[in-house]
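Course assignment 3, question 2. Fill in each field.
Student: A.L.
Task: Predict the tertiary structure for the chain below.
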Amino acid sequence: MTLRPFHLAFPVHDLAAARGFYRDTLGCTEGRSSDHWIDFDFFGHQIVAHLDPAAVPVAVENAVDGHAVPVPHFGIVLTPADWAALAARVAAAGVAFGIAPYTRFAGQAGEQSTMFFRDPSGNALEFKAFGDDAMLFATDAPPVEQAA
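Answer field:
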């Protein structure tokens, strides 16, 4: 099966801030837009920032590998080199990491590099990379953790 691009629409409270973040900070090409939404090429996938001035991020977190992971979140799996370049780019832009870049599940099935941060509207994003993409759906689950 050929992997097809996904589509995700999400709320933002300020289109100009979203444009600056997704286009300028993350490097996503802008597609179609209106006064109420902007399409972005999110690493080959289509995301659409829809204006909702009252948008408020959800504040739920689940424990994963000793970190409080925000839920919901979205992101992309990059190559290790692209992940490292994005981590440096985001840090240089002064974006605060919710979970700073690190290796999750070190030495276990599913070992991955990961980082979390939020866009200007508070939407949580995760970017990860695997040294071996076959580990993306590894079935050896890590130990069950209690909620933070």
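Instructor remarks: Residues 80-92 form the longest helix (13 residues). Residues 60-148 form a domain with the 2,3-Dihydroxybiphenyl 1,2-Dioxygenase; domain 1 fold (CATH 3.10.180.10).
Grade: pending
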